[in-house]
């Protein structure tokens, strides 16, 4: 007998319910990845995520080969390709991870119907990409939890299953595969220069290093921009090179205040997923419509994208995004608040730009975090505006983060780097750095009156 393990956002062999489910169901397994043309057509396969994905696929293929198997790669319409492979191999079951976006939900329905038409079974593993599956924690009257703190309390108490080990042997039937794709072939365009390498091997190495020490400083330093003291595991979690259940399990084993704070942060992933599972429209539409009269894309948004707003902390973070395909969470909060509230530009403009560049770009986490900051999401204090100067004082007090990312300001010492407009005339003139594009007090007034009555 044959079963298909269809990899999507779970590109790993350890703690893989999809691979394990297929192995338990049949003598032979087709570990299959389809380069879905729908994802490319939707513009979701960008140079950064394409390059990272290519690394993940090469590593997954190598891990399967070590176990006597290999990865089978096809490209085209995912449903058509899976059915074709089922036909070619006589596979009776297809195992796949549950997913929440509207695109993924539609795709799953199409796949289920197509397989049913061939008398094949689709087995969806709801726990393959989350710790607690969407829908498992819900208040009595709702399809999802709208407030994080009570969600987190129940999430912590729920207790996840134990992680599964990697299989020792994977026997694959004789079947054609395309060669593993090259990064450039996946998404045209050049990836960011500071992109991390994709794949489960690198992911596990980083997780081990992280839990071996740095996590202990997480509670104190996670918001310190210059310290750069977060795990940077987000791309590996996005592509499923790491199982969130295993990450949480190992962090809890490690214990301590740092590990606990880190686990709490991982719960946000599940929180956003269950919001999107219940409200797929929130990827595009306001989760809570507050009648904002957003300003459209234009010159201000362009300065924001270019990292030339004249507010050094905002510009530093925007440039980190371009160079690394990643941005520190505090930077994401500050730059998103600056676009959506200070410039009062539609949050969708910013969310699109983030998705174009972030290697961890994720519909649930990106769109719902943007909505959180813009005040249309699940935030309990939707009118908070982050002042970039006050944020600078708290989270980059010495100005080191700004000097790291804004070379024009490197010769300015200490915290003076955050207010270049106050520098002595000749120094100010020498710096090729713009004046602020907006007055913060005027911007605050515009935001407060911007909402229609
Ligand atoms: P750590 O601080 O080490 O946290 C560990 C893990 O917890 C992260 O890898 C991530 O999986 C999860 N996590 C942490 N914070 C959050 C959060 N606020 N929401 C959801 N999950 C979280 N995260 C993404 O993975 N993809 C995105 O597209 C994304 N877009 C964002 C957009 C905005 C405007 C904001 C404010 C946040 C966004 N985040 C996104 C959340 C967060 O910024 C990143 O997950 C985090 O910066 C990744 O770095 P890290 O792995 O070092 O995080």
Automatic annotation (TrEMBL):
Segments of skewed composition (Low complexity): 189-199
Protein name, UniProt field: Deoxyribodipyrimidine photo-lyase
Region (Disordered): 166-203
This protein's record includes keyword Flavoprotein: yes
PANTHER family reported for this sequence: CRYPTOCHROME (PTHR11455), CRYPTOCHROME CIRCADIAN CLOCK 5 ISOFORM X1 (PTHR11455:SF9)
Keywords for this protein: Chromophore, FAD, Flavoprotein
Cofactor(s) this protein cannot do without: FAD
């Amino acid at each position: 007998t044959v079963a298909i393990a269809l990899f999507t956002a779970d590109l790993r062999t350890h703690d893989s319910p999809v691979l394990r489910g297929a192995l338990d169901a049949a003598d032979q397994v087709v570990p299959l990845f389809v380069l879905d043309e729908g994802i490319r057509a939707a513009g979701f396969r960008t140079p950064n995520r394409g390059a990272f994905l290519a690394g993940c696929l090469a590593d997954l293929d190598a891990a399967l080969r070590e176990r006597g198997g290999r990865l089978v790669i096809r490209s085209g319409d995912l449903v058509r390709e899976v059915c074709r492979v089922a036909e070619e191999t006589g596979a009776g079951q297809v195992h796949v991870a549950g997913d929440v976006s509207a695109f993924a939900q539609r795709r799953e329905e199409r796949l289920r119907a197509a397989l049913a038409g061939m008398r094949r079974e689709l087995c969806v593993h709801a726990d393959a990409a989350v710790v607690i599956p969407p829908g498992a924690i819900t208040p009595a009257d709702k399809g999802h939890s709208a407030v994080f703190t009570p969600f987190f309390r129940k999430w912590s108490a729920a207790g996840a299953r134990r992680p599964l080990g990697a299989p020792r042997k994977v026997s694959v039937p004789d079947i054609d595969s395309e060669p593993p794709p090259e990064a450039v072939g996946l998404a045209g365009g050049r990836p960011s220069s500071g992109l991390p390498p994709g794949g489960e091997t690198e992911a596990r190495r980083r997780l081990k290093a992280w839990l071996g020490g740095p996590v202990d400083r997480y509670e104190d330093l996670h918001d310190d921009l210059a310290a750069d003291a977060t795990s940077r595991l987000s791309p590996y979690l996005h592509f499923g090179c790491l199982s969130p259940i295993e990450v949480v399990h190992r962090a809890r084993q490690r214990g301590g205040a740092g590990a606990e704070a880190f686990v709490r942060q991982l719960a946000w992933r599940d929180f956003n997923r269950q919001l999107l599972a219940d409200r797929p429209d929130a990827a595009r539409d306001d989760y809570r419509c507050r009648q904002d009269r957003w300003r459209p894309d234009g010159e201000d948004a362009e300065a924001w994208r270019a990292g030339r707003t004249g507010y050094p902390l905002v510009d530093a973070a925007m440039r980190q995004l371009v160079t690394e395909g990643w941005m520190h969470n505090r930077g994401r909060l500050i730059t998103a608040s600056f676009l959506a509230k200070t410039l009062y530009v539609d949050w969708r403009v910013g969310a699109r730009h983030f998705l174009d560049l972030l290697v961890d770009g994720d519909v649930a986490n990106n769109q719902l975090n943007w909505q959180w900051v813009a005040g249309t999401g699940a935030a309990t204090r939707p009118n908070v505006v982050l002042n970039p100067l006050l944020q600078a004082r708290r989270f980059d007090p010495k100005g080191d983060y700004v000097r790291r990312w804004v070379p024009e300001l490197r010769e300015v010492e200490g915290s003076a780097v955050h207010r270049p407009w106050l520098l002595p005339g000749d120094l100010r003139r020498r710096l090729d750095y713009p004046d602020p594009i907006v007055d913060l007090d005027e911007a605050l007034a515009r935001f407060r009156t911007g909402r229609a009555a």
